[in-house]
Design brief:
Number of strands: 0
Helix content: 55-70%
Shape: extended
């Protein structure tokens, strides 16, 4: 059985130095690596988008 790490895709991401520094501070505040922080933020953005795009239930 393959580990979760092998299921992840790799990509090259270019960031400005100022954005990198802000992410580094934020990641440190949340006790995450910069990579972990970026993955967390992207996951949350996708989750919020899905929630927003769900059709509202009629009562």
């Amino acid at each position: 059985m393959e580990s979760k790490e092998k299921d992840k895709k790799q990509l090259l991401l270019r960031l400005t130095n100022s954005l990198w520094e802000e992410l580094a501070i934020w990641a440190q505040d949340d006790f995450r690596s910069i990579n972990g922080q970026i993955e967390y933020l992207l996951t949350e953005a996708v989750r919020q988008r899905r929630k927003r795009d769900l059709p509202e239930k009629e009562e």
